[in-house]
Amino acid sequence: MEEFYISITRNTRVREVRKQLKINPNSDFKEILQAAGKKLGIEAKILYNRSGAIINNRNDIKSEETLYVSQGEEFWSRQSKSAQNIKESRTLTIGIIGHRAVGKSALTTRYIEKAYRDNFDPRIADTFTKEIEIKNKKVILNILDSSMLDEIMVSFSDWFEDGEGYIMLYSITDKDSFESFNYFYEHLATINKTDVPLVIVGNKCDMEEQRVIKKEDGMMLAKSFNAGFFEISVKKDINVTEMFEHLINRLYDIKYGAMRRENDVESTELKCKCNIL
Ligand SMILES: Nc1nc2c(ncn2[C@@H]2O[C@H](COP(=O)(O)OP(=O)(O)OP(=O)(O)O)[C@@H](O)[C@H]2O)c(=O)[nH]1
Ligand SMILES: [Mg+2]
Fold this sequence. Notes:
38% of the residues are buried. Strands 7-8-6-9-10-11 form a 6-stranded mixed sheet, with helices on both faces. The protein has helices spanning 29-40, 104-113, 152-155, 175-179, 181-190, 215-224, 240-256; strands at 4-10, 19-23, 46-48, 54-55, 66-70, 90-98, 126-134, 137-145, 165-171, 198-203, 228-231. The chain folds into 2 domains: 4-84, Roll (Ubiquitin-like (UB roll)); 91-255, P-loop containing nucleotide triphosphate hydrolases (Rossmann fold). It is built from 7 helices and 11 strands. It is of the alpha/beta class. The site of magnesium ion has 5 residues, from α2.
């Protein structure tokens, strides 16, 4: 049996972001249950599938499915509303899409941990969470870090559909990473996600001497996708915060604010400090 991934989420009526869990060929059911609980920060006792059936055998777990992790309570849809501990917090979920080695995980780490790791550490797809403050309100930000080392299906699985906005990341030093965007955009269309806030981002602008994608080409592409545009360097921490703030504020306004949705192309006017490096 080969390893595969499933999505897991807490067993609540309020929809929460799903996390990826790798199922190893040799792990038994108890280990899977423990790993699921650890990942969600709870003590896992029961696994339910989407229709509320209890899964208690490793062989009944299917690749790519979503399982609900319970601490002993009934499947969420069978609970009475009053029995539920509904905690409404504001959440925003951003997916990062991009070709292999463009810096998706480095970008996630830079934003979540304010750190940069220079080693190439191909990571599996995963969800990262950080509490931020917008307009004096606490907001839970989820970042879905996809990985091109996984099957393409993992990146566009159920889990990835939780994105409410997406960063499409390429490297200014890698032509393939730029050209793959049409393909990614088509995939976004298949999950009905082209009408959400998008931002096209050219990373590694500290490597000016190895640039193969002109800034104008990035801007043009962003315009054609009706998306925002930034050039950044995760390594040198250039424009990373600005880019996230731009996307987060747009998402927040659409989801929680009264502001009408506007085209995003004005962000192209943002100066990229990379050019003067
Ligand atoms: N010079 C430079 N290198 C960077 C920058 N951002 C990331 N890198 C390097 O690029 C390599 C790939 O970064 P990752 O974050 O692992 O790439 P990824 O997109 O997550 O790759 P996969 O998970 O394999 O799809 C690493 O060696 C990073 O250190 C940057 O802004 N400048
Ligand atoms: Mg990665």
